[in-house]
Amino acid sequence: MKKRVITLCSLYLMLGGTMTEVWAGDYLTNTNQSIGFLRNPSRDAAIDIDGVYYNPAGVSFLDEGWHFQFNWQSPHQKRDSRSSYGALFGANYLNPGTPEADGSASRLYKGRVHVPIQPSLYLAYNKNDWAFQFGFGIIGGGGTCEFKNGVGSFEALVGQMAKTTMEQMNVGFGGYSLDSYLKGKSYFFGTTLAAARKLNEKLSVSLGIRAIYAWNNYDGYIDNITFRMQTNPNDYTIVNYPNNYVLDCKQTGLGLAPIIGIDYKVNDYVNLAAKYEFRTPITVKADAKNNDAFNQMAGQRAAFANYLDEAETQMDLPGYLAVGVQVTPIEKLRLNAGYHMYFDRDTRQWSKDLVKDTNEFTLGAAYDLTDRIEVSAGYQKTMYDQSEANYSDLSFNLNSYSFGLGVGVKVTDKVKLNAAYFQTNYKDHTQTTAVSNIVYHRENRVFGVGVDVNF
């Protein structure tokens, strides 16, 4: 009997059932590239050293000489999903799910992201009408997300496999158990070189190029799988499934994209700016050390094919348009507004029926309390347009609004310290199918400090 169970399990895992892609592509662009952004996310028309990222053409309006900025951010994120597959999770005899009023059993799967240090730095040299610029930051990804108990689609696969096997054997379904774990790391390191030139006292243009090195690492397993068969009302037989599934995959790739910008000073009170980052085509190649059982499964399932050794996957960063305005109604007050569009439909990893372009709006203000102390705050609204097929319990994006606030203090005429807090509030999303119900939830908080030096 035990041999028959093992054979049926293997056939089901290799050929039957379905499982959502849990390492799918994500919306990758990070715009929190400075403490100035955390203090006020509406940076598109601001004239400052972090304009190397936000407003490269405007950097040419800084004073002559060297300008340097270093930023240190520490993001913390919750990425949770509460899943139910009918009464299935209640059949986990070692860790039953939470009973629900409708008879289903749900379980909360917690994903945690902690990034002690997310650095960025900018350098510019201004001479006459020119500004030569260098920037470095984590343009996409940025951190480690750990699911200590795996994700719901892992458990649903094992639970359904156990149930189907016992139905085929005409024995009672007495439950199942498993251990599962997932950890993903993703860093898109970006280095930017650019030059801006003032065409006159009101107008400046810029041209730059950014190189991005993508590095992803995935570790996970499904282990200690057991099936419990009910041979009579008071008797259970536990069968140990012989295979465990181990994922150990690293992906690396390189991409280049040009960036153009323009800044126009309408008068002493209004500044307009825009930049466009072209799509960054990136193809990552896998270096995998998975175990044989995982490779055999991945060879049968397209959802896992990207994690086989030497597999290639597209992870383009989308083209990105940012436009902004800064208004100075009085000498000490600056008001900002901006609009961003990410051309996600033009990237190779998504089909046009899976996602549409993402829209973002920002508002902010900065005020000089004294000649040395500046306070600022701002708001950002992000709106995705995506199909239900783009959600999974590892990779999901939710509509959100964010706010930030902070302070900048000039400790000398050449050195300024910055500190900020930034929080994103997401709108939960519920995905209901014929077999499952999943509620997606995220929280995000960022603390940051930095220093500006002019010399």
Question: What does this protein look like?
Answer:
- The chain has 455 residues and is mainly β.
- It has a single domain (2-454), classed as Outer membrane protein transport protein (OMPP1/FadL/TodX) (Porin, Beta Barrel), CATH 2.40.160.
- It is 11% helix and 55% strand.
- The chain has five helices and 21 strands.
- It has helices spanning 2-15, 35-39, 51-54, 152-168, 292-300, and strands spanning 65-84, 98-99, 105-109, 111-114, 118-127, 130-147, 172-198, 203-232, 235-240, 245-265, 270-277, 283-288, 312-314, 319-330, 333-343, 358-368, 373-383, 400-410, 415-426, 429-432, 437-454.
- It has a 21-stranded antiparallel sheet that branches.
- A hairpin with a 5-residue loop joins β2 and β3.
- The chain is elongated, with a radius of gyration of 26 Å.
- The termini are far apart.
- Residues 1-26 have low confidence and may be disordered.
List the helices and strands and how they pair.
Blueprint: H1 2-15, H2 35-39, H3 51-54, E1 65-84, E2 98-99, E3 105-109, E4 111-114, E5 118-127, E6 130-147, H4 152-168, E7 172-198, E8 203-232, E9 235-240, E10 245-265, E11 270-277, E12 283-288, H5 292-300, E13 312-314, E14 319-330, E15 333-343, E16 358-368, E17 373-383, E18 400-410, E19 415-426, E20 429-432, E21 437-454
Antiparallel strand pairs: 1-3, 1-4, 1-5, 1-21, 2-3, 4-6, 5-6, 6-7, 7-8, 8-9, 8-10, 10-11, 10-12, 11-14, 12-13, 14-15, 15-16, 16-17, 17-18, 18-19, 19-21, 20-21
Helix pairs in contact: 1-4
